[in-house]
Write a structure and sequence with these properties.
Chitinase A, domain 3, 2 domains, alpha+beta, three-stranded antiparallel sheet, Triger factor/SurA peptide-binding fold
């Protein structure tokens, strides 16, 4: 787990706190409503109807796969509520950052990216691979890091917390050694052929299976797997020679592919694997056994865990105080919605 993902947990804590209060949300936008219309003002900072709609889209994007449209429709008020809570959180933090003169330099963002890249490299992964898996770009990554560093600086300034001592970190590591274990992992590449949309016939399945069997025979005859993947794979990783990267057993891949990856021998391509997605050939390029990380190896994560736990309760209490003291005004809404958003 990267330092970035650990620090992001601090934001989740505060969002969970914000969700504990009742917030009156505007109704779904009517046709002809101006997206630039202000629906709420928080500490002097506006929230427009467009921003609310975009945040609703962001919440919807986090819905678990396979959730039915009917269920989403039933949860629409809760989804709008969550979107508005997040926007209120953003505006409260934005106002506090401006008030206290919190700034994050480009050099600080660069240092954080370097730390993340070094951590990933030390654990058999690369930053570009991780970004591709998350669908991230350099711009969005830098924005996320800047935001998180800004908030960490804000909390540290307001709470006046001192950096942890070496003794505190080592004691924390010893108390939670079971957290700092690298699980079994394999480095895999794949060639995948997706089922044609709308064609689930037995003939289509047999054709794809035959194509994949021929590709496996070409690999057995000495052809390069990565070149075959570039030419024939339907997957998003085709341009990288089919490289998925280092995976653990809990990776978000079809169960059939994961099982093949962890049962095949290194430097082997197993039999054709069928999954709900289609047909796969999996090449296991390397294997890394389970390993207990030393304190020095785990130090970046230990620091984040320790800091997260130490901040947690003070941050919750401080944000609750900031939320209660915030000036929140609803605008452009029917009278029935004009109530105190802090209630």
């Amino acid at each position: 787990m990267s330092p970035l993902s650990l620090r992001h947990r601090l934001l989740i804590v505060v969002w969970a706190l914000a969700a504990s209060g009742c917030v009156y949300t505007p109704p779904a936008p009517e046709p002809g409503q101006d997206p630039r219309e202000t629906v709420m003002i928080v500490n002097g900072l506006p929230i427009t109807r467009l921003q609310l709609e975009e945040e609703i889209d962001a919440v919807l994007a986090e819905a678990p796969p396979g959730i039915e449209e009917r269920e989403l429709h039933e949860k629409a008020p809760l989804i709008r509520d969550e979107a508005l809570r997040r926007l209120i959180f953003d505006r409260i933090i934005e106002a506090a950052v401006a008030e206290h003169g919190i700034e994050v330099s480009e050099a600080e963002v660069d240092d954080e990216i370097r730390t993340i890249a070094e951590y990933l490299t030390a654990h058999g992964r690369t930053l570009p691979d991780a970004m591709r898996e998350m669908g991230d770009t350099t711009h969005t990554l830098r924005m996320a890091i800047r935001r998180q560093l800004t908030e960490i600086k804000l909390w540290d300034k307001l709470l006046n917390l001192q950096p942890p001592t070496e003794e505190e970190l080592r004691a924390y590591y010893q108390a939670h050694r079971e957290w700092y274990v690298e699980p079994d992992a394999v480095l895999i590449y794949q060639i995948v052929k997706f089922r044609p949309e709308g064609d689930d016939s037995a003939d289509a399945d047999e054709r794809l299976r035959s194509e994949m069997a021929l590709l496996r025979n070409r690999w057995l005859a000495g052809e390069d797997f990565t070149e075959l993947a570039r030419r024939y794979s339907d997957g998003a990783h085709a341009a990288q020679g089919g490289k998925i990267g280092w995976i653990t057993a809990d990776v978000n891949l079809p169960a059939e592919v994961v099982e093949a990856a962890f049962t095949q021998q290194v430097n082997q391509v197993g039999e054709v694997v069928q999954s709900p997605m289609g047909y796969h050939l999996v090449w296991v390029a390397a294997r890394r056994p389970r390993k207990q990380l030393s304190f020095e190896e785990a130090r970046p994560v230990v620091e984040d865990h320790f800091s997260h736990e130490r901040r947690r309760e003070p941050v919750i209490q401080l944000y609750e105080k900031m939320r209660q003291e915030a000036t929140i005004a609803l605008a452009g809404l029917p009278p029935a919605f004009r109530r105190d958003a802090r209630s």
